[in-house]
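Worked Example 4.2. Consider the chain below.
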Amino acid sequence: MPAFGKVVVCGVGLIGGSFALALKAAGAAREVVGLGRSRAPLEEALALGVIDRIADDWMDAARDADLILLAMPVGQMPPVMAALAPHLQACTIVTDGGSTKSDVVAAARAAFGGKINQFVPGHPIAGAEKSGVSAAKADLYRDKRVVLTPLTENAAASVARLASAWEACGAKVSQLAPEEHDRVFAAVSHLPHLLAFALVHDLAGRDNSDQLFGFAAGGFRDFTRIASSHPEMWRDICVANRAALIKELDAYLAELLKTRVLLASADGAGLETMFATARARRDHWLDSLQPLSSE
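Applying the procedure from the previous section yields the following structure tokens:
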């Protein structure tokens, strides 16, 4: 028998669709039901075999569900949680795939009230620059990290059961407190995306942008790859985690000023020392990634 009976995925894009495909490939779900704000992606998900059927509404979707994944941008979480709450049954675990946690937890507390123990927050660290159900793939989470940020109200059995779902997808599960999660990912995920978007936006607005992009090559492509990410999703992430992100942006601006001083004074030795330190730390990080990787 599959570990899960009915699994509901609300938001069948890259994250939700890949979760559905991975569970189905592992034989871990008897039925995967899709729900979303637009019909077209759900029809596409059904045609691609990502989901087994489309739910008409939360009353239909939540009935007898073992697990519900909320896989929409974090800015959409509050109204979706509010719509789900009246239909949430006692046997169901609810989780999310949002890249910020403090705001999602606050929304869950407001929506679920006394049922908050059924919500176990999560964040799969396996994004890609492409979005939509057509980008979903069954192996997206294989050897990738998924961070759970359990609440004090969560039963250990519920956390373990959710972890088993992600492990069935091939993921490596870790845990952080929600606030710690947001501080960490402001530095290693949200800031890099913000910088990539800002650089491309800067060059795109210049009078000679066609010339600049015409000569751009591998270095520019690698640095700005994540600027092809979903704008709505990253808008919501940046706004939701803006306090931690601003701290990281300020620290980076200070580092850029130090770098500018080295450059303006033609301090080759200082630049080389900085470059060497950065390269050594990055190489050490790359060596530690096996078999884990993160976005």
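The mean pLDDT is 94. Residues 4-176 form a domain with the Rossmann fold fold (CATH 3.40.50.720). Compare this with Example 4.1 before moving on.
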